[in-house]
Amino acid sequence: MLTRLSRLRKSKKWSLQYTADRLGIAKSTYAGYESGYREPPLETLKKLADLLETSVDYLLGRIDNPAFYPKAWKVELHDKLKLTEARTRFDVELILDGAPLNEEEIKQCIAFIRTKRKLDTND
Amino acid sequence: MLTRLSRLRKSKKWSLQYTADRLGIAKSTYAGYESGYREPPLETLKKLADLLETSVDYLLGRIDNPAFYPKAWKVELHDKLKLTEARTRFDVELILDGAPLNEEEIKQCIAFIRTKRKLDTND
DNA sequence: GAAAAAGTACGCGTAACGCGACCATATTCT
DNA sequence: AGAATATGGTCGCGTTACGCGTACTTTTTC
Questions:
Q1: Could you tell me if B80 and B103 are in contact, meaning their C-beta atoms sit under 8 angstroms apart?
Q2: Does B6 touch chain A (CB under 8 A)?
Q3: d(Cα B52, Cα B41) in Å, to the nearest integer?
Q4: Helices A16-23, A42-51: inter-axial angle, 10-degree rounding
Q5: Edge to edge, what strands does the sheet with B74-77 contain?
Q6: B87, pLDDT greater than 50
Q7: Most buried residue among A9, A109, B13, B66 by CB atoms closer than 10 A?
């Protein structure tokens, strides 16, 4: 059930003991979660998602993207596109006619809109 | 802990009994989840999120948006921007210098990129 | 206003959880 | 290399807390 825990923990180079300490539980208890031998209470599950910087839905195998997800769907146009939300930032792609906009196309769009806006305010 | 269950269930106009039946558990068992008296096993928690069309993270109070979230961060440029993913679609905004792109600006960007791409392929 | 359904609370039997203890393997240190 | 320490993994026991039936109150339906 929670086999994804092991991967995420190792990606952070944490030991079972360290992780268990941060959760305030015994090493054997946490090991039980990773092996699927036991299930954690919901409060511990939330702490795990916090520690490992992912979603509970990912830990449970309900989604496949380990990155946490945004609360607001706003995309800022810089050189790189960023999806902004409260916790962190995610890379996104803009697709047009099936092909993603490359960096240069995005820059050109940005310049295009900026000059357009400047013209609209100066008359 | 799971007080959001009650809201979501009522918004679907389901009774405790009906919900419990769909989960394959006793009414009193499910009632225990809503009241916070008991916690469901993780498998049941996932089923609940499926039934109520939300995320486990929302049920646990970890995020405030009950809508499910995307699996892939891809934005398709049409007249309206859409964030595409497996389950459903979300409206998004493109922000430039703090101001969102309006529909006309997006259309102009689309036309701009299309002509640019046509030029690149025809030489 | 009776009957049915819905919501709520409790007690019992039992499944499953948390922990310490233990061992095998891997890593670190002198 | 060999001792010392840390790590990953498993097991058994005591205890927690879960699932269900049951009973009771409140609400809805006719």
A1: yes
A2: no
A3: 17
A4: 120
A5: A99-100, A93-96, B74-77, B81-84, B90-91
A6: no
A7: A109
